[in-house]
Amino acid sequence: MTRLYQPGIFEGVPAVARYVVFSLAQDSDADGIKQALVRLSPLSNGSDVVVGLGPSLVAALGAQIPGLHEFPAMEGHGVTVPSTPGTLWCWVRGDDLGDLLHLTRKVQKALAPAFALRHVVDAFRHALGESGHGRDLTGYEDGTENPTGDAAEQAAFTHGKGEGLDGGSFVAVQQWLHDMDAFEALTDDERDHHIGRRRDDNEEIEDSPTSAHVKRTAQEDFDPPAFMLRRSMPWMMNMQAGLMFVAFGESLYAFEAQMRRMAGQEDGIVDAMFSISRPVNGAYFWCPPMRDGKLDLRRLGL
Ligand code: HEM
Asked: Which residue, 233, 18, 229, is CA-closest to 137?
């Protein structure tokens, strides 16, 4: 596949990152929005800043991205999956938090006055291992079953849909707040059975319950298979902490199928993850492809 995509999506998880959500200022019009996006485009080389546009922003520009829709809220079986739509999302990436502050300010200035900064979550990589994967704050390696190489490109990026769409990606962004007390109250065995893998050696546990996280989300167990590229990172603020779950797909199908199964919407069985963590927000965005080192915004009429 020609590399049309924002490279940061493929590159993997950086040492530190910020997830920044912008909303539209009250009096912004289509012209102001377009000018802001044109100013943002050279700043977002796709590596230091990965950009995603929400369904409402695409609609405000009178454009259409086939397959993009708002995040579906889910309720029932004792769990809540909230939907908190966002307008524009930036994953600001690097290896120094100070640099990220300055970069965030540049992005903020480029987008003003049409866009106002709404929400920032600081995130970091934890316990990077030889496998190249970090760990969730529960201590479990995260990213093991991610597709790699060509399979990752196939899973994460649009192909065969034409110029301005190919190389684009749909991202699900969902912040999970861990209940560390609940997690710490479990025995080591119980923890492993919640996840479906052993924390010590990362081996999958064949006889873990149907509610085990990796059993609920086994990508090849969906019809059609639901592969996607997860790029989640731990976050913390004061003494609250959790996982910023982020998954890129050539469509939103894989995430939605997995989320439905996790939330018990398919068979009433809820993912054990919900007993130690819960989602506090959730939104979908479309990450445009790149062209000549800038965001390719032709589909938005730019
Ligand atoms: C608190 C939130 C979450 C935590 C801590 C978490 C953690 C983990 C861990 C430790 C693994 C096993 C290693 C690996 O393959 O990466 C895993 C696998 C996986 N998770 Fe999550 N996860 C969370 C939320 C989600 C959500 C919301 C989804 C999708 C809706 C998801 C989808 C997956 C998938 C697809 C796999 C690989 C399954 C396979 O094919 O074996 N996870 N997760």
From this structure: 233
The model's pTM is 0.98
What's the CA-to-centroid distance between 166 and ligand 1, angstroms? 27
Which of 79, 141, 170, 214 maximizes ligand 1 atoms within 8 Å of its Cβ, making it the mutation to test the pocket? 214
Q: Which domain holds residue 279?
A: 7-300
Q: Is residue 12 part of a domain?
A: yes
Contact 248 CB / ligand 1 (< 6 Å): no
Q: Quick check: is 1 in a domain?
A: no
231: its two tokens: 């790029």
CA distance 176 to 121: 12
Domain assignment of residue 58, yes or no: yes
Secondary structure tally for the chain: helices H, strands E: 9, 14
Residue 145 in contact with ligand 1 by CB distance below 6 A? yes
C-alpha 286/C-alpha 65 separation (Å) is: 8
In a domain, 103, yes or no: yes
Residue-wise over 253-264: b if at least 16 C-beta within 10 A, else e?
Answer: bbbbbbbebbbb
What string of pLDDT tens digits covers the 302 residues of the chain? 568 999 999 998 999 999 999 999 999 999 999 999 999 998 888 899 999 999 999 999 999 999 999 999 999 999 999 999 999 999 999 999 999 999 999 999 999 999 999 999 999 999 999 999 999 999 999 999 999 999 999 999 999 999 999 999 999 999 999 999 999 999 999 999 999 999 999 999 999 999 999 999 999 999 999 999 999 999 999 999 999 999 999 999 999 999 999 999 999 999 999 999 999 999 999 999 999 999 999 999 99
Closest residue by CA, ligand 1 atom 16: 143
Task: Give the chain's domain count.
Answer: 1
Q: Is the CB of 231 within 6 Å of ligand 1?
A: no
Q: Within 16-148, where are the H helices?
A: 30-43, 55-60, 97-111
